[in-house]
Design a protein that fits this description.
mainly alpha; 9 helices; globular
């Protein structure tokens, strides 16, 4: 245990991340390309579908997964960069953006699992939701450590919202298990989705505010930190576009309940 504490402390006290290199850009292109290639067949199918099959603009059905997988590609790039720095013992101090990548990594694996199963179709077994919940719970635990390790409150708030989104997802997976088992109904699942979506959008807003304060106070961050902020904003945009009907209906109901 003492060795683990020494390793973590050593990881946090090293020099800042080195400068951006050509090899980093090549890795970025590779990660984003792999992520976009994952949805290329689906995008091609959407392009061939008639416009009448879509509730909204057909282009929106293409933009949403593209934004989502751009964020996923950036997350893979961030995790690969941190892993490489650790491998070569060039250990950077963990900025809030680095912590974001570490939190979101398990959540991305859960999201990719969901996407693969959606393509297969048919009902999902209970074990799938348990695996999803385990991934998201792991992200929440990492997020709790990130909040503890981040000294500035503006970034603690941002990482706290990201961490809360992980716990919302793990709770939704557990709720789905109880629903399949017959213990709960479907109606409250949409409430969890609305709260999760609101939390993700709020985390994007908190990140913009924290970056603004950093710039005003001339707080220097490394380039990987800003890649993480871009990934976070892409995720917030994706959630806002994809779940806007659920979010708007939920908050209109909340306002009408308390004000009407």
């Amino acid at each position: 245990m003492s060795g683990l504490r020494f390793s973590i402390a050593n990881f946090q006290q090293q020099q800042p991340l080195r400068r951006l290199a050509i090899s980093d850009l090549l890795m970025l292109i590779f990660c984003v390309s792999i992520s976009l290639a994952f949805i290329a067949p689906w995008i091609d199918e959407i392009r061939k579908m008639p416009d009448e099959m879509f509730r909204g603009p057909k282009s929106l059905a293409i933009v949403i997964p593209v934004l989502d997988h751009l964020g996923i590609g950036l997350t893979f790039f961030g995790l690969a960069t941190l892993t490489r720095e650790r491998w070569y013992r060039r250990l950077p101090s963990l900025s809030p953006g680095h912590w974001y990548f570490l939190i979101v990594g398990p959540m991305v694996m859960s999201a990719l699992l969901t996407e693969l199963l959606n393509r297969r179709g048919g009902p999902w077994p209970v074990s799938v939701y348990l695996i999803q919940g385990a991934f998201d719970l792991t992200a929440g635990i990492v997020g709790a450590w990130a909040i503890y390790s981040t000294p500035l409150w503006r970034w603690r708030v941002c990482l706290g919202l990201v961490t809360a989104s992980a716990f919302f997802l793990s709770t939704r997976a557990l709720y789905r298990v109880t629903e399949i088992s017959g213990y709960t109904g479907y109606q409250y699942q949409l409430h969890l989705v609305a709260l999760w979506g609101t939390d993700v959008i709020a985390s994007g807003a908190a990140a913009v505010l924290a970056v603004t304060v950093d710039l005003l106070r001339r707080t220097r961050r490394d380039w990987l930190h800003y890649f993480a902020i871009v990934a976070l904003l892409l995720t917030a945009m994706t959630v806002g576009l994809a779940f806007r009907p659920i979010l708007s209906r939920f908050w209109l109901d909340v306002c009408s309940h308390f004000l009407g």
